[in-house]
């Protein structure tokens, strides 16, 4: 498979192949995985190195790369069976060793001199020696089998969340060529202090900020290290990109032509031109240990999901007469609910009637995306204390997960005490509606007539007019 790359991606690939150390900054949706796989494919064709090591902090990132390269004979995915996606078992180390053992009637498990069972190291090394590309999670950076191999080339995905201490284990085995791909504006490494995990109160302590600094950040500040930034995104609706580009990337991000033609869902956004909605919820937060939840928001989120999924074929036909382009009804798989706290994840799952909708924290969803994202901001108090809901890196991740639509549930008065949230409201001029008003925008409401207004269109005389369309069940 030949991966299609565009102007800035091509420059990043050429620089990575030419320079011994290179940093590639990839804002959300700019094709970091495509660039990584293209670099690997070219190096394999050039036969420059015997073994190429690909590492990342999460299994998700490694699986994405392995999945793109899965049809290649040169790849073996290293990791535990639990950590590797099921569809990648055939190219996993265990899967390939099992296949060879079955064909050659050799045992994967042997006994040592004391009679203790252990894996057949010779068989595993045989598979690794024949493999050119070895993707693995950083948890296996000190694997004894991999320590027997020499890796002249190392590619680090998710470099902005990779701690220096774990990265060192991967580059001490003869690394001569290092490529790091990440985004400094998204989440930093997850650090554990002596007294436990980072909390809102402890995250700014000096020892945490020091450990959160990465080699990727340091190299980006070095004058002698070439750093390329990918500037075109292929993921989200251009309106969804507007605020992240302004707030986090100096308004330098562009949208590719492919994302300018997006499907319309059987749902009327408050502003026809912007797939963004804010639903006000005034219920107060509750402190649950070191986390928070908000029962009222969880109920509103459940109502939102029910509204989005309450669609019939008749609704699709009706909307086809209103909108130009592709019309779709939303499925459960196309919706993800995100929040900033584990306590709220549990609260939403307890109240959610539509089983199968994914619920996750913002931290746990970095690197993922979906068609429609529903957000529960949780924090609601008179003091205007927002905690993680006001963290810039988390907000960057949050605002860049949706492809076609973003629905935010929160207390507008609390959020507007934050400068960044105030700028978000101002950028989109987002109307603040209630949960009841939101449910009325669903065309599935019986005996309800709504007036839809398309954007200004030119009449025969050349003057701008509004086209009003009535739709009745």
From TrEMBL:
Signal peptide: none annotated. The keyword Ribonucleoprotein does not apply. Keywords: ATP-binding, Helicase, Hydrolase, Nucleotide-binding. InterPro entries: DNA2/NAM7-like, DNA2/NAM7-like_C, DNA2/NAM7_AAA_11, P-loop_NTPase, SF1_C_Upf1. Coiled coil: none annotated. One of its GO terms (molecular function) is hydrolase activity. SUPFAM superfamilies: P-loop containing nucleoside triphosphate hydrolases. This is Regulator of nonsense transcripts 1.
């Amino acid at each position: 498979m030949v991966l299609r790359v565009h102007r800035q991606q091509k420059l990043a690939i050429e620089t990575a192949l030419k320079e011994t150390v290179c940093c590639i900054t990839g804002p959300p949706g700019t094709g970091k995985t495509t660039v990584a796989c293209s670099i690997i494919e070219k190096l394999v064709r050039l036969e420059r190195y015997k073994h190429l090591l690909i590492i990342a902090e999460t299994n998700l990132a490694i699986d994405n790369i392995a999945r793109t390269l899965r049809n290649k004979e040169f790849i073996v995915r290293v990791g535990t069976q639990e950590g590797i996606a099921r569809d990648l078992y055939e190219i996993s180390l265990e899967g390939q060793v099992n296949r060879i053992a079955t064909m050659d009637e050799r045992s994967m498990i042997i006994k040592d001199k004391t009679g203790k069972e252990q894996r057949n190291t010779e068989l595993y090394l045989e598979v690794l020696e024949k493999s050119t590309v070895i993707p693995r999670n950083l948890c296996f950076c000190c694997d004894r089998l991999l320590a027997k191999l020499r890796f002249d080339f190392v590619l680090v995905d998710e470099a902005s969340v990779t701690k220096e201490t774990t990265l060192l284990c991967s580059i001490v085995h003869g690394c001569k060529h290092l490529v790091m791909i990440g985004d400094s504006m998204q989440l930093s490494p997850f650090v554990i202090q002596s007294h436990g995990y980072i909390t809102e109160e402890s995250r700014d302590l000096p020892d945490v900020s020091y450990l959160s600094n990465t080699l990727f950040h340091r190299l980006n500040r070095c004058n002698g290290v070439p750093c390329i930034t990918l500037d075109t995104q292929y993921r989200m609706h251009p309106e969804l990109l507007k605020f992240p580009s302004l707030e986090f990337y100096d308004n330098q991000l562009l949208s590719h032509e492919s994302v300018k033609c997006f499907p319309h869902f059987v749902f009327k956004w408050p502003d026809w031109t912007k797939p963004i909605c804010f639903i006000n919820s005034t219920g107060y937060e509750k402190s649950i240990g070191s986390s928070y939840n908000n029962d009222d928001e969880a109920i509103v989120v459940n109502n939102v999901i029910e509204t989005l999924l309450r669609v019939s074929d008749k609704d699709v036909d009706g909307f086809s007469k209103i909108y130009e382009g592709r019309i779709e009804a939303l499925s459960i798989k196309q919706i993800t609910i995100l929040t900033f706290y584990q306590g709220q994840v549990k609260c939403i799952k307890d109240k959610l009637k539509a089983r199968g909708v994914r619920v996750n924290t913002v931290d746990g969803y970095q690197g993922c995306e979906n068609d429609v994202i529903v957000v529960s901001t949780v924090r609601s108090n008179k003091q205007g204390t927002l905690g993680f809901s006001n963290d810039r890196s988390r907000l960057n991740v949050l605002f860049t997960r949706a492809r076609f639509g973003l629905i935010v549930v929160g207390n507008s008065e609390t959020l507007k005490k934050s400068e960044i949230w105030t700028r978000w409201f101002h950028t989109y001029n987002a109307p603040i509606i209630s949960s009841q008003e939101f449910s009325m925008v669903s065309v599935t409401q019986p005996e309800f007539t709504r007036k839809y207004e398309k954007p200004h269109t030119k009449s025969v005389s050349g003057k701008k007019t509004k086209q009003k369309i009535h739709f009745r069940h």
